[in-house]
Amino acid sequence: MFEEEARPRPSDGFEPRKLDNLGVEELRAYIAALQAEIARAEQAIAARDAQKKAADLFFRKPE
User: Which residues of 44-53 are buried (b: 16+ CB within 10 A; e: fewer)?
Assistant: First the structure.
């Protein structure tokens, strides 16, 4: 039953913080930092999508 908890989780680059000891302002700051990181990731996705679309247009087969 407790074996699952004992196994190490694979690292995906994100380690959630323990929230028990954080105050309200610290939690708000943590949320703001996470939202900034999400926005940065979304910008990277948009840039990659734009690059792929440009490549698809460049390498498309003539009709």
Answer: eeeeeeeeee
